[in-house]
Amino acid sequence: MADEKEKKDEQEGGRKSKLLPIFLGMILVVGGAVGVVAMTAPQKPKEEKKEVDLDSFPPKVWPEKLSWTFNPGTRRNVAKIGISFEYKAEDDIKTQGVIVEALPKARSRIQILLLGKSVDELTGGDNALQLKLEMRDILNETFFPNSEEAHAKVSDVYFDEYLIK
Question: What are the boundaries of each domain within the chain?
């Protein structure tokens, strides 16, 4: 009886050992075919983000003037600075909503910038130009924090008032 069992196991083991290379061969062939199809199949077109050239849009002047009265550096001096700014936008209505929403934050950030300046830093042509550029950067960062998705920018800042006593 034990002999019969051993013969039966040998026959089944022999059959299993013959089927294993066949299964491995089939897996390799099918896997290779899938790989070839995957490599040669046309790729899906990637969505390209359209680059918007904001300089091609006409500038628009924000209707509200922004102004600050403050004591620069020392308590003896008084300064009054007023600005207006231009912006360029792909979608003007959406941009106006963004600006209106962020305007209080922009005022506050520029107030902090101005309070950190001394009288010497506020006087002189080069210093005024530097301040103008800093204000433009603050407005851009506040209104359009993600510049790659913004589709709008503050293009220029103009001084309406620049008085330091």
Answer: 1-48, 54-164
Among candidate residues 156, 87, 74, 86, the one with its CA nearest the CA of residue 122: 74
β-bridge mates for residue 147, sequence order:
none
Angle between helix axes 125-143 and 92-115 (nearest 10 degrees) is 130
Distance CA 102, CA 132 (A): 19
C-alpha closest to that of 61 among 83, 82, 80 = 83
Q: Does pTM top 0.70 for this prediction? A: no
CATH class of the domain whose range is 54-164: alpha beta
134 vs 157: CA distance, rounded Å: 10
Query: pLDDT 10s digit of each residue in the chain, 165 long?
Result: 555 655 555 555 555 567 777 777 788 777 777 777 677 767 766 666 566 778 788 999 999 999 999 888 766 888 999 999 999 999 889 999 999 999 999 999 999 999 888 888 888 778 889 999 999 999 999 999 987 777 899 999 999 999 988
Q: What are phi and psi of 120, to 5 degrees?
A: -65, -35
